[in-house]
Amino acid sequence: MNRSVFVTGGSRGIGLAVARAFAEDGDKVAICHRSGASPEGLLGVKADVTQAAELEDALRTAEEAHGPVEVLVANAGITQDTPLLRMTDAAFDNVLRTNLTGAFAAVRAATRSMLRERRGRVILLSSALGFLGAPGQTNYAASKAALVGLARSLVWELGDRGITVNVVAPGIIATDMTASLSDRRMEDVMRMTPLARPGTVDEVVHAIRFLAGPGASYITGAVVPVSGGLGMGH
Ligand code: NDP
């Protein structure tokens, strides 16, 4: 496809699989992440999405190498689960600043060139649990539900410039993020999942690839579940 693609949190899990899939399609892919080494074969930039200036620099580096960003996947996300009465302000803020403010900052940085070019695709990673809620996840669920409001406002602001904004809401996907879930919690969630199994990163990749591709040119403001039916109807 040869587009300039930027993925936040592209060093592991869903973000890495998405980045590799776009690269296999022929796109020029840059990713940002906080720690560790950058994945081979991709342009990796160290940037913490909670630091807007780092993110702006990362986008600049990507655009110098690959041209104006045409596809943004705002994927970087964390959990810091704690029951309400033990949830510190810091734990609440951390999750909101990464999952919500980080996505906002990435969109703001990436859409400058999209607005100039009058085209672009923005995909935000929410979660089925953002709509269902989950014990111990007041911070995470609030951040993921808020992404829908963010996306729907962006849809209005950016639509007449040819930019689409969509949200992907995965259920439980086998990655580092879910590896620490207790067996009991996993069983509980599987009972609420009609397909009765966790999803794979590839199943999320398919939805993101579609939303970024030519077949989705008239889709904007959608919340696309990739959740085996978990939370359907929300
Ligand atoms: P992982 O924990 O496997 O990977 C998270 C990625 O985000 C890593 O690349 C990590 O980089 C990066 N990241 C985290 N914080 C920051 C930050 N402040 N700045 C830059 N990069 C950061 O997560 P998943 O792949 O499982 O999840 C990806 C997205 O999908 C998240 O938004 C998550 O909420 C969402 N999601 C995941 C589900 C699941 O079941 N796995 C279900 C529903 C939604 P580093 O290596 O440097 O830490």
Question: What report would you give on this structure?
Answer:
With 234 residues, the chain is of the alpha/beta class. The protein has one domain (4-224): Rossmann fold. The protein has helices at residues 13-24, 52-66, 89-117, 128-132, 138-158, 176-179, 183-191, 201-212, and strands at 4-8, 28-33, 43-46, 71-74, 120-125, 163-170, 223-226. A 7-stranded parallel beta sheet has the order 3-2-1-4-5-6-7, with helices on both faces. Strand 1, helix 1 (13-24) and strand 2 form a beta-alpha-beta unit. The longest helix is centred in the middle third of the chain and has 29 residues, at 89-117. The protein is globular, with a radius of gyration of 17 Å. The two termini are 33 Å apart. The mean pLDDT is 97. Bound molecules: NADPH dihydro-nicotinamide-adenine-dinucleotide phosphate. NADPH dihydro-nicotinamide-adenine-dinucleotide phosphate (NDP) is lined by residues 8-15, 32-36, 48-50, 75-78, 98, 102, 125, 127, 170, 172-173, 175-178.
Give the SSE layout.
Elements: E1 4-8, H1 13-24, E2 28-33, E3 43-46, H2 52-66, E4 71-74, H3 89-117, E5 120-125, H4 128-132, H5 138-158, E6 163-170, H6 176-179, H7 183-191, H8 201-212, E7 223-226
Parallel strand pairs: 1-2, 1-4, 2-3, 4-5, 5-6, 6-7
The structure holds NADPH dihydro-nicotinamide-adenine-dinucleotide phosphate (NDP).
List keywords for this structure.
single chain; 234 residues; alpha/beta; Rossmann fold; 7-stranded parallel beta sheet; globular; binds NADPH dihydro-nicotinamide-adenine-dinucleotide phosphate
